Amino acid sequence: MEKVEILTRVQDIFRDLLDDESIVLTSETMADDVEGWDSLTHIQLIVAIEKSFKIKFTSREILSWKNVGEMIDNISLK
Q1: Is the pTM of this model over 0.90?
Q2: Which of 22, 43, 47, 74, by CA, is between 20 and 30 Å from 57?
Q3: pLDDT tens readout for residues 17-67
């Protein structure tokens, strides 16, 4: 799966979970850039992404992400 496709699916998950159709993610997007993306929402997003892509992340992987691009890179490796 191409990274653009992954980004689109992840963006749809963010929009659904945060109930905000105006969210536009880029590789550089960080939690501070998205209203409502707090620590609790972060966990919910990870769970939703894992279910959608049928993958599991390790704690080390999750803690290493600095932005959406690093999350996308990690998904593409799985």
Answers
A1: yes
A2: 22
A3: 999 999 999 999 999 999 999 999 999 999 999 999 999 999 999 999 999
Cα 26 to Cα 59: distance, rounded to the nearest angstrom: 23
Q: Which CATH architecture has domain 3-77?
A: Orthogonal Bundle (1.10)
φ and ψ at residue 62, rounded to 5 degrees: -60, -45
Residue listed under structure tokens 């963010």: 14
Q: How far apart are CA 62 and CA 20, in angstroms?
A: 23
Residue 64 parent element (H or E): helix 59-64
